[in-house]
């Protein structure tokens, strides 16, 4: 069926999307090999950030609905976009997905620091944000301003001003009736949902202590290639610049902190204290991030959440949530064990077939758009991100910080979106020293 632009505008408005159609988008649409399969209900998706997670999110979006197509991709690196494009084609072939569901024309492959805006300004209904975290608040604000539904990877910011920006944008998205799905994927994992439903329903009585871990080995690193500027080298290894990643407590271990927030009923802690540092990952190539954190979140009334995380080569791994209450204990080893022991013992059956949580979150997102009841966890994702930011601030400075102090911090780690260019020489902060580094 040929696309009727007027009726399509009516459809996307009913689902909360403002139609923003540029002339070049219509021309590209006319040339699309998928045009004959499109109709007024077709949801057009654009991917911003073509790394591994972005590629996965694009595939899951394509799979989430029978009438979804990927029409645009954006990245600062041509090779990343090209690799993602090929990987998607290969994955769709392996999974026997209609190849016409990926209809990214050459003029909809956007490269550069302004690529995100070019994609948002094209005729897309849903935007997938999967760049390094430093870009997230600005990209999210631009997408919501343009009336797009959004899937937003975690973390959603790297500092408190960024979190505050995201909260404001999330509230605007809700006012506009836009769906906003976060990348906190465990919230959509069936075993976790089953366990948490029982936990929050009093399965262990009044919970007083929670212990989370995210202990891993070393992560990836890209050796410098000829022709790379200092900034490109840093961009290629963004994990190790705290202004790009928020440090590993935000970029990776934040999943454990979100699991803590969930168990605590998504109530913000009163304060946090703790420590951290770098013991084994000390070379200059690893920028200025820590390799371990140890934190205590005080939730008041005798309730505390303990968090330990590390990225150290050759160390044992742990990815767990351990909840203690006055009537029992709930224990989760995130990939295999989900159990409650107390007045009533329960364990999730390992015989149940595992359902891909990444796919389930996209299924939920697109169904909510179809139903006219847009899914929205914008403020919650910002608050979970703030747990990581305040934990990092406490560890960097060695100070006990309240929630109010942390979220009102004025420390801005990186540049604004309009400052990015390949000649940028953003100064890398010194590695933090608890007791010496000051809270700002």
Give an overview of the whole structure.
The protein folds into two domains: 181 residues, NAD(P)-binding Rossmann-like Domain (Rossmann fold, 3-Layer(aba) Sandwich); 210 residues, Dihydrodipicolinate Reductase, domain 2, CATH 3.30.360.10. It contains 15 helices and 15 strands. α3 packs across α4. The N terminus is likely disordered.
Overall geometry comes to: globular
The CA-CA distance between the termini, in Å, is 58 Å
Any idea how many domains?
2
Give the integer mean of the pLDDT values.
Answer: 91
Count all strands and give the number: 15
Strand fraction equals 15-25%
Task: Describe the structure using short key phrases.
nine-stranded mixed sheet, 15 helices, 440 residues, alpha/beta, globular, Dihydrodipicolinate Reductase, domain 2, 15 strands, Rossmann fold
Summarize the structure.
This protein has 440 residues and is an alpha/beta fold. It contains 15 helices and 15 strands.
Could you give the topology of this structure?
Layout lengths: L4 H10 L8 H9 L11 E6 L3 H12 L4 E8 L2 H17 L14 E3 L3 H7 L4 E4 L6 H10 L3 E4 L7 H17 L3 E3 L7 H11 L6 E10 L13 H7 L5 H4 L2 H4 L2 H10 L7 E7 L14 E9 L2 E9 L8 E6 L2 E6 L3 E6 L3 E2 L9 H15 L6 H20 L3 E2 H5 L33
Parallel strand pairs: 1-2, 1-4, 2-3, 4-5, 5-6, 7-10
Antiparallel strand pairs: 7-11, 8-9, 8-15, 9-10, 11-12, 12-13, 13-14
Helix pairs in contact: 3-4, 3-13, 6-7, 7-14, 12-14
């Amino acid at each position: 069926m040929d696309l009727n632009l007027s009726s399509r505008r009516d459809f996307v408005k009913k689902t909360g999307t403002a139609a923003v159609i540029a002339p070049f988008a219509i021309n590209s649409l006319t040339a699309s090999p998928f045009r004959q399969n499109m109709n007024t209900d077709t949801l057009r998706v654009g991917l911003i950030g073509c790394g591994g997670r972005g590629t996965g999110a694009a595939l899951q979006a394509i799979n989430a609905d029978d009438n979804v197509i990927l029409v645009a991709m954006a990245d600062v690196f041509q090779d990343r976009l090209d690799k993602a494009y090929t990987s998607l084609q290969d994955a769709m072939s392996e999974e026997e997905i209609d190849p016409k569901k990926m209809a990214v024309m050459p003029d909809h492959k956007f490269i550069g620091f302004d690529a995100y805006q070019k994609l948002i300004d094209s005729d897309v209904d849903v935007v997938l944000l999967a760049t390094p975290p430093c870009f997230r608040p600005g990209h999210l604000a631009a997408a919501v301003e343009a009336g797009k539904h959004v899937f937003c990877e975690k973390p959603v910011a790297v500092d408190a001003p960024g979190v505050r920006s995201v909260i404001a944008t999330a509230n605007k998205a809700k006012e506009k009736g836009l769906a906003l799905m976060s990348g906190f994927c465990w919230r959509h994992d069936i075993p976790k949902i089953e366990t948490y439903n029982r936990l929050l329903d009093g399965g262990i009585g009044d919970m007083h202590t929670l212990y989370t871990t995210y202990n891993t080995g070393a992560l990836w690193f890209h050796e410098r290639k000829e022709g790379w500027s200092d900034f490109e080298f840093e961009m290629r290894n963004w994990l190790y610049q705290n202004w790009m990643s928020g440090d590993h407590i935000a970029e990776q271990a934040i999943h454990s902190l979100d699991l803590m927030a969930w168990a605590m009923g998504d109530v913000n802690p009163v304060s946090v204290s703790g420590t951290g540092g770098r013991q084994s990952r000390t070379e200059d190539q690893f920028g200025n991030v820590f390799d371990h954190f140890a934190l205590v979140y005080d939730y008041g009334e005798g309730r505390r959440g303990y968090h330990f995380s590390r990225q150290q080569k050759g160390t044992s791994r742990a990815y767990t949530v351990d909840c203690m209450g006055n009537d029992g204990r709930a224990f989760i080893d995130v990939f295999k064990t989900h159990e409650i022991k107390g007045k009533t013992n329960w364990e999730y059956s390992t015989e149940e077939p595992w359902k891909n949580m990444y796919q389930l979150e996209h299924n939920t997102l697109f169904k909510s758009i179809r139903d006219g009841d847009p899914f929205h966890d914008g403020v919650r994702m910002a608050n979970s991100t703030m747990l990581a930011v305040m934990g990092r601030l406490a560890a960097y400075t060695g100070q006990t910080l309240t929630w109010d102090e942390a979220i009102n911090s004025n420390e801005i780690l990186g540049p604004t979106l309009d400052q990015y260019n390949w000649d940028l020489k953003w100064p890398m902060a010194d590695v933090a020293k608890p007791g010496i580094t000051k809270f700002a």
